[in-house]
Amino acid sequence: MNKRWAVRQKADHDEVKSLAEALNINPVLSHLLLSRGIHNYDEARYFFRPDIRHLHDPFLMAGMEQAVERIELAIAGNEKILIYGDYDVDGTTAVSLVYGFFKERYDNLEYYIPDRYTEGYGISTQGIDYAAANGFSLIIALDCGIKSIDKVDYANTLNIDFIICDHHTCGDTIPAAVAVLDPKRPDCGYPYKELSGCGVGFKLLQAYAEKNDIPFEEIFRFVDLVAISIACDIVQITGENRVLAYFGLQKLNNEPCTGIKILMEVAGRSANYSIADIVFTLGPRINAAGRIDDAKHAVQLLIACDEADAREKGALINIKNTERKGHDLQITDEALSMIGASEAMINRKSTVVFNESWHKGVIGIVASRLTEKYYRPTVVLTRSNGHVAGSARSVLGYDLYEALCGCSDLLLQFGGHKYAAGLTMKPENVEAFVEKFEEVVSASITAEQLIQQIEIDAELELKDIDGKFFRVLNQFAPFGPGNMSPVFLSKNVYVNGTPGLVGSNHIKMSISQPGSAWFDCIAFNHGECLHQIRPGVPFDVCYSIEENVWRDKRSLQLNIKGIRCY
Predict the structure, then answer these.
(1) 3-state secondary structure of 494
(2) Are the CB atoms for 109 and 165 separated by under 8 Å?
(3) Which helix or strand (DSSP H or E) is residue 311 part of?
(4) 364 Cβ neighbours under 8 A, 6+ residues apart
(5) What residues does 557 pair with on adjacent strands?
């Protein structure tokens, strides 16, 4: 698929020069800082040196006073507390965080993860009935609940109070809970709006610890769980999230909690994790528990203190992940065949595929794969509990949630973010939804949004890449949404000798510009360009810079994102 190269607009020349001189760095690096809203030495120090003092006062969040007071009241009265969370990575890490913290101080509590298949996403009637039958009078809901108006009303009739800790977009009405913590609430003045669900849970613990004179270290030792949630829920790695991710990665790589340590072992890698490594290595294994079996297994692993017990749970989760991969590949192949066999589907601006036998646990992954292939808003549907359940994914710049709002008359339930969402409908509405979704997308998506784009941060001369440049660049990490690993453009580069093909479709080569050193490169999935690259003929590349470690030797390597031959 051809991709557009979009080069970020150059920052003001005088500003670039001034900041580069103040920090004694390459002007290209000061341009990167300016594009991230960093204009002076103090702001750069704040960015490059994350500090726990940069975390906001948790009591700035609307509802926090009431939430802490209700928990204190429950503990003082020996009430039964149920820690309730969704079955994905954000939900299970949030439950592990809050349950793990309170379990060390209070015995009369349990945790509850709804079953993906019998209860579905978010707060369920079944979960509330479980709480009522077992004498729970307080439910702390994590990573869900902001739209559970009727469920909270139902709980109120049973004298069960709710504290909701969510980070999803609010509806017109806020649930009638004792406290609703969600920085996206229109009436919430909290300075940072992009926390993960686990991050909101962390702020609740921070507030409770402050109020009850518990040392901050007692909650900060769970920060590796917060980093995993930030990575896997694809939230912005800016502001407060960047601080939590920075320290969470440090803890994960140096002193992870027992369950995460074992999870890293079964994944075959015990250190040097980045945000991307968490997304592709740890996240799928945690998710696999709820996708294939029961998400409670993920919580059991994450809260485990005994290594033997954790190892048993880790092995089970790894088996479930292997099973998940099988379902994922099979359903993706079937969906691609379905689209490829229909000219009408190929020519649409959206993709909606439905097969009532597909495994509900992997349709989100399949939606992501189809979006990669056809690059357009995508919904994958399957049968579940008498209804049709779906998982949706979007493309850069297109608000999927708004598109689903335009189809809300055909949906029983939906929720999520700009780029990912879940939905439920009656089986008889599937055909109408296919047409309505296409109608809404066609009317609101631009031609540019349907062409995948490589966002290039700056043009760079290869001669400027040296040890100091890379050391400063490294301090931009952790990388992720809102702070992606910078991509550079270098024009008129030359290949050294003949490039080679690695694996089935990857190019390995060495390039330079006049006056620069030679740089080793890897170009994943660019095999079709191999015949165009010839010695003595210039071409352009865009790339990120990374460190390659081979047999204890470290060298800089260019990870090629795009190749443009003349």
Answers:
(1) strand
(2) no
(3) helix 307-340
(4) 380, 391, 393, 420, 422
(5) 520, 546
For residue 397, the one-letter residue type is: G
| 376: CB partners within 8 A, 6+ apart | 348, 349, 350, 351, 395, 441, 445, 450
Q: Which residues of 108-140 are buried (b: 16+ CB within 10 A; e: fewer)?
A: ebebbbbbbbebbbbbbeebbebbbeeebbbbb
Residue pair 428/421 in contact (Cβ under 8 Å)? The answer is no
Beta strand spans in 312-417 (E): 351-354, 378-384, 387-393, 413-416
Its pTM stands at 0.90
Q: Look at the block and give the residue holding tokens 């590949």.
A: 329
- What Å distances lie between residue 287 and 88, 157, 425, CA to CA? 6, 33, 24
* Cis peptide, bond prior to residue 186, ω within 30 of zero: no
What's the distance, CA 556 to chain centroid? 27
In the structure encoding, which two tokens stand for residue 436, read together? 């309505």
Strand stretches in 92-191, DSSP E: 109-112, 136-142, 161-165, 179-181
- Phi, psi (deg, nearest 5) at residue 383: -85, 140
Mean pLDDT per 10-residue run, the chain (566 residues)? 86 96 97 96 96 97 98 98 96 98 97 89 94 98 96 98 95 96 97 98 98 97 98 94 98 96 93 94 92 90 95 94 92 96 95 96 93 96 93 95 96 87 95 98 96 95 96 96 96 95 93 96 94 94 91 88 93
Kind and range of the H or E run holding 156: helix 149-157
Output b/e per residue, 189-215; b: 16+ Cβ within 10 A.
Answer: ebebebbbbbbbbbbbbbbbbebeeee
Separation of first and last alpha carbons in the chain: 18
Neighbours of 9 (CB within 10 A): 6
Opening angle at CA 435, ends 432 and 436, nearest 5: 80
Length of the chain: 566
Tokens of 88: 């994905």
d(CA 12, CA 220): 40
**495 φψ region: left (φ > 0), alpha (ψ -120 to 50), beta (else):** beta
Tokens of 144: 């869900």
| Distance of alpha carbon 407 from alpha carbon 439, whole angstroms | 10
Neighbours of 553 (CB within 10 A): 7
Q: Which residue has the tokens 């294939």?
A: 292
DSSP string, 177-210: -SEEE-TTSTT---S-----HHHHHHHHHHHHHH
Under DSSP, is residue 297 helix (H, G, I), strand (E, B) or coil?
A: helix
Cα distances (Å, whole numbers) of residue 236 to 93, 275, 389, 484 = 18, 12, 27, 10
Bridge partners, 462 (sequence order): none
| CA dist., res. 420 & res. 398, Å (int) | 11
Please identify which residue in the block is written with the tokens 């099979």: 330
Report the 3 state secondary structure along 5-70. EEECCCCCHHHHHHHHHHHCCCHHHHHHHHHCCCCCHHHHHHHHCCCHHHCCCHHHCCCHHHHHHH
- Helical spans, DSSP H, in 381-525: 400-405, 430-444, 467-474
Phi, psi of 28 (to 5 degrees): -60, -40
